[in-house]
Description:
By secondary structure, this protein is mainly α. Helices cover 77% and strands 0% of the residues. The chain has one domain (3-84). It has helices at 3-22, 31-60, 68-84. The protein is elongated and about 55 Å long.
Amino acid sequence: MKAQDLARGGLITLSLSLFLSCAGLSDRENPEVQAFLDDYTTEYLELQYASAKAEWASNTRIVEGDAANAERTKAANEAFAGFTGSV
């Protein structure tokens, strides 16, 4: 996963949050929106952390002939990209 893709996903989340706060909406006025943002943020952070952790492992635990790190990294990055719509 490219740093550009990670930044784009974070920018989308931040933009949506800022838009809603500027519009004067609070969680009491629109609980469905707040619930969506809370759920999205939780899932986004979990997938982003898994992707970063897999990238770190791939870059620091290099074993000749072992493709397990590369496979885990690919799976974590694809899950994150699929969630953010960067596929």
